[in-house]
Design brief:
Elements: E1 26-32, H1 62-72, E2 77-83, H2 91-100, E3 105-110, H3 120-124, E4 126-132, H4 137-144, H5 148-159, E5 166-173, H6 180-189, E6 192-197, H7 207-224, H8 233-243, H9 247-250, E7 264-267, E8 272-274, E9 288-289, E10 294-295, H10 314-317, H11 322-330, H12 334-357, H13 360-366, H14 369-377
Parallel strand pairs: 1-2, 1-7, 2-3, 3-4, 4-5, 5-6
Antiparallel strand pairs: 7-8, 8-9, 9-10
Bound molecules: iron/sulfur cluster (SF4) (2 copies).
């Protein structure tokens, strides 16, 4: 018997216990192919606890991975995200996994600088490529190093026609100076733009107001047309949750929409499994291991100390980032709560009010069927956090 069968998910009710560590029929296997990276982004979350670069070799093999999948994930629909470090630095593992499990769906999260190393057959099989970029050239190169923005744009243009699925710009909205124009350029040139507010002390002075000014323009543009989607994932997701509230239950069962409480497994190169890729430094977060072939429920679950259930945003936000809530309210890191978590929650509530100002139900009612389909059902919702 595995540990998992003995554990009750803390959020489960007594009448409906979740005995399965994976809630629902799908599971995302996020394989950190390496913890090495060829860039040095200033805000990298793997820098916490010196995780970045700490594991350079894989400590499990493909047979152990297959045995884990057979025993722990039997009957689930599996999709794999290659993650790192920079995952393309371990191309042999990516190839081995894609050949061994041809029926899975695949996503790549990459900094884009080595994308042109992927052979065509791999590009064809990718359902989504998340390309990390921070905005325009000055912003991106400021965080990532000189010349990175141009190199990424060139590489994406070079491989784009050969990628089977979508290409999503993944932005960490770090600086308050990030402009509407640079986010808009990304939204217009990629299939989707997805951003998260940086989990760092970047919310002092007038920086919230500056971000709100940009958010007002992005939200205005989102509602400007009903015949063409403005493909900003956090806005699509929030609008979906407001106009089709039952959808918030479907993929994540009403728990956080970043999947850490329900169905994402981050597998480190050493085989240990964690729910959140930003908390790999904390042994208390471990929820399984490939070699030992065990899995238990995610420890990142709703907690009475979290303020979400009395928040105006709860119905559509559903506890945005469990790492932030855990650090701020469960571990009691007051400085982090005040300087990072609360400002981000303020921005989320602000976005909700701005969306309401545009009467999302009336907009959805007028939208063309392709736009409605995308808002309701976009496959990309499965691959990203949805909330910012
Ligand atoms: S805005 Fe913050 S407090 Fe409100 S539900 Fe979301 S994460 Fe929780
Ligand atoms: S949004 Fe989810 S996956 Fe991302 S850092 Fe927060 S808890 Fe982790």
């Amino acid at each position: 018997m595995t540990e998992s069968t003995l554990e009750l998910r803390p959020a489960a009710s007594a009448s409906q216990p979740h005995l399965d560590p994976i809630v629902g029929g799908r599971v995302e296997l996020q394989l950190l192919t390496t913890l090495k990276c060829n860039l040095k982004c200033t805000y990298c979350s793997l820098g916490v606890g010196d995780v970045l670069g700490s594991q350079t070799e894989l400590k499990y093999d493909i047979e152990q991975l297959a045995a884990f999948i057979d025993k722990q994930l039997a009957g689930k629909e599996i999709y794999v995200t290659f993650y790192g470090g920079e995952p393309t630095l371990n191309l042999p593992l990516m190839k081995e996994v894609m050949r061994r499990f041809p029926g899975f769906r695949y996503q790549l999260q990459t900094n884009g600088t080595l994308l042109d190393n992927l052979p065509d057959w791999m590009l064809h099989k990718l359902s989504n490529v998340l390309v990390s970029i921070d905005g325009g050239e000055a912003t991106t190169d400021g965080f990532r190093g000189r010349g990175v923005w141009r190199q990424v744009q060139k590489n994406v243009a070079h491989v784009r026609d050969r990628i089977g699925g979508t290409v999503t710009a993944r932005v960490t909205w770090g600086k308050p100076e990030t402009s509407f124009e640079e986010l808009d350029d990304l939204a217009e040139s990629f299939d989707y733009l997805y951003w998260q507010f940086v989990a760092d002390e970047q919310y002092g002075g007038d920086s919230l107001e500056r971000r709100k000014e940009v958010l007002v323009r992005l939200i205005d543009k989102f509602f400007n047309r009903t015949d063409k989607l403005y493909p900003l994932i956090p806005l699509m997701g929030m609008v979906r949750n407001k106009v089709l509230p039952s959808r918030v239950e479907e993929l994540c069962h009403g728990l956080t929409q970043c999947r850490v409480s329900t169905h994402i497994l981050n597998v480190m190169p050493d085989g240990r499994i964690f729910p959140c890729p930003d908390m790999l430094y904390d042994p208390a977060m471990q929820m399984g291991e490939i070699q030992g072939n065990w899995l238990k429920c995610s420890p990142l679950q709703p907690h009475p100390a979290m303020p979400c259930e009395s928040c105006e945003a709860f119905a559509w936000c559903r506890r945005n980032c469990m790492k932030n809530l855990h650090r701020g309210y469960v571990q009691g890191d007051a400085a982090y709560r005040e300087r990072v978590v609360e400002p981000i929650c303020e921005l989320i509530r602000f976005m909700g009010r701005e969306i309401d100002r545009h009467d999302p139900q009336a907009w959805f009612a007028e939208a063309t069927l392709p736009v409605r389909k995308q808002v309701a059902d976009a496959e990309v919702y499965e691959y990203v956090e949805i909330m910012p």
